[in-house]
Design brief:
45% of the residues lie in helices and 8% in strands. With 573 residues, the chain is an alpha+beta fold. The chain is globular.
């Protein structure tokens, strides 16, 4: 069960995307004292709150590892953040609440983490003092333990009220249980279930260069940089820079971001971004018919997303290459599970090994990867339509309407029909229906060139003993096969405009449609810098307008507005 104080504060915690003022817990008349903080669970004392985003599962896990060590285990189920249609999970995090069941899950995780942090193997690293009485309360020692931990967890120093609240919580629990460490565990659990940890809270201060307006404060800038570039909480160097006010100085802010982009930890940020952009959460639910695809197993399923991410990181981070070449690269990686799919022998002891494809191999580029091909297929057959739609929506940012509810899919699904042996023939019969034709004209010309790969991404020269026509057309350009498709996408301005817009959405938590002409200017900068992802991330991380906010008179129902995004939904002064 949740501590009583947290259960009483639950309605306030769940309302934080809408109401950001503190919620006092109540105590019934005549009730005895409890181990609960006298101050609000959530406070906006650090300045005007201008945005909030819930931590993703990967951000939560990485934060715990960076703060407490990689050997601290995080177990349990994370309540998913709802992805808005045609947007990122990062965008949905700005609107995400936590249900009572979700908070119970976070509480269970917090208790498990706290127990590990203060167990016999770890306590000496986090308790720098000796309590006066190991069987009771010691406010001074508890303060020495909880204050630095709170700074890392909340990504800013604890306020005086917060510090007093958590120290009192630890002391009350220690007095009742007769164990100083138990008090620390309870206080740390409360920190880990606080909105100040579970949400990235962005706050602003008066902007001296724009009187009457606001700018994001130093600690919020540190958090944005760290979660964008490293997918984790700010480290000591960033927090120190924030405490010294260096991140509101343009030159020092740029220098800090440049150093972070050059860090090996940029890989974590790039992985997280593309996992969001390419809907990698779908891998968790991917299933294949074992009769149709007997080679598909759990090891293959686990290897598919990792192969894609390794290829992306190799091209864009390790080689600092042109984003467009991700669609034409001949270099990828395979392990033993993927060896049979790629017809390459790999031993278990080798782990992941690089694979250089031949120039005429139809697998070149990210679109030829088994992960993409399998993810956008049905359980028992390939799907040119799903693959075409994925390319339109994920790689070109061109939404495709859902099919009407009364569509007859019989012709497409009948893969055993010898009269219509290939997907192209079956789709041609299907789109004879004018209700279906409009959307299929968008998806199929770029999905059909991938038909030489089946529903798990294995190569097949024929379908039902019939030759497979892999011709296609995109933006007036005709081509053959997956390699020709990759070259066509690499040459399209829509491809680079899309990733630039998605990166801006990922950084700010707001749809690019809300951000005016910024996407166009960012795409131009992206082009000038050779379409390098590191340059794109740096440009967006240091975009001045993303850190400025309009500050109208703080009257009821007025919202704070960002120079980049306009009104921030759900945030009220």
């Amino acid at each position: 069960m949740l501590p009583l104080a947290l259960r009483r504060a639950l309605p306030c915690a769940l309302a934080i995307p809408l109401v950001l003022t503190g919620c006092q817990t109540t105590q019934s008349p005549g009730a005895t004292a409890r181990s609960e903080p006298p101050a609000p669970i959530f406070t906006g004392d650090q300045g005007q709150v201008v945005g909030m985003r819930r931590l993703s599962e990967s951000q939560y896990r990485q934060s715990i590892a960076d703060i407490f060590g990689p050997d601290i285990k995080v177990g349990g189920r994370f309540e998913p953040i709802v992805r808005p249609a045609h947007e990122l999970i990062a965008t949905g995090s700005s609107e995400s609440t936590i249900s009572p069941a979700g908070l119970e899950q976070f509480d269970a995780m917090a208790r498990s983490i706290s127990a590990q942090v203060f167990d016999a193997d770890h306590a000496r690293y986090f308790i720098p003092c000796t309590p006066r009485d190991a069987k009771g309360a010691d406010a001074d020692c508890a303060r020495h333990v909880l204050t630095p931990l709170g700074r890392y967890l909340f990504r800013r120093p604890l306020t005086t009220a917060e510090q007093a609240a958590y120290v009192q919580m630890a002391g009350d629990a220690a007095a009742k249980t007769g164990d100083f460490t138990t008090g620390l565990k309870l206080a740390l659990s409360a920190m880990l279930t606080s909105p100040n940890f579970l949400y990235i809270v962005e706050s602003a201060e008066p902007d001296p260069d724009q009187p009457g307006d606001l700018r994001m404060d130093n600690y919020s800038r540190a958090a944005r940089l760290s979660f964008l570039l490293w997918n984790s909480t700010p480290n000591e160097a960033l927090l120190k820079a924030a405490s010294e006010g260096r991140l509101t100085d343009p030159a020092q802010f740029l220098a800090t971001a440049q150093a972070m982009v050059k860090s090996p930890r940029l890989e974590q940020g790039v992985r997280a971004f593309f996992a969001d952009m390419l809907l990698f959460e779908k891998f968790d639910d991917m299933a294949k018919d074992s009769v149709v695809y007997p080679r598909f197993n759990q090891d293959v399923a686990a290897a598919l997303p990792e192969q894609m991410l390794r290829t992306i990181v190799d091209q864009l981070v390790t080689r600092d290459g042109d984003y467009r070449e991700l669609f034409t690269t001949r270099r990828t990686f395979v392990n033993r599970a993927l060896g049979p799919l790629y017809q390459v022998p790999v031993s278990a002891s080798q782990g992941w090994v690089p694979l250089d494809l031949k120039p005429d191999d139809d697998r070149i580029g990210i679109l030829g990867q088994a992960g993409f091909l399998a993810l956008y297929s049905h359980s028992g057959r390939s799907s040119p339509t799903l693959r075409g739609r994925a390319m339109r929506e994920l790689l070109l940012c061109q939404p495709v309407p859902n099919p009407p509810g009364n569509v007859n899919f019989t012709a497409v699904q009948n893969t055993g029909n010898k009269a219509m042996p290939t997907a192209r023939i079956r789709l041609n019969a299907h789109v004879a229906d004018p209700v279906c034709a409009a959307c299929h004209k968008i998806t199929d010309p770029i999905g059909l060139p991938l038909e030489r790969f089946d529903g798990i991404g294995a190569f097949r020269p024929k379908e039902n003993d019939a030759d497979i026509d892999t011709s296609g057309m995109f933006e007036g350009v005709t081509f053959k096969g997956a390699s020709g498709l990759g070259k066509a996408l690499a040459q399209s301005p829509s491809t680079t405009e899309c990733v630039a817009g998605r990166a801006l959405e990922y950084a700010t938590g707001h749809s690019s449609s809300e951000q005016g002409d910024l996407v166009g200017s960012i795409e131009k900068g992206f082009a000038t810098r050779g379409y390098r992802i590191s340059a794109l991330f740096l440009q967006i991380a240091t975009l001045p307008d993303a850190y400025r906010f309009k500050a109208p008179a703080l009257a009821p129902n007025k919202v704070v507005a960002s120079a980049a995004t306009g009104p921030i939904k759900g945030v009220r002064p």
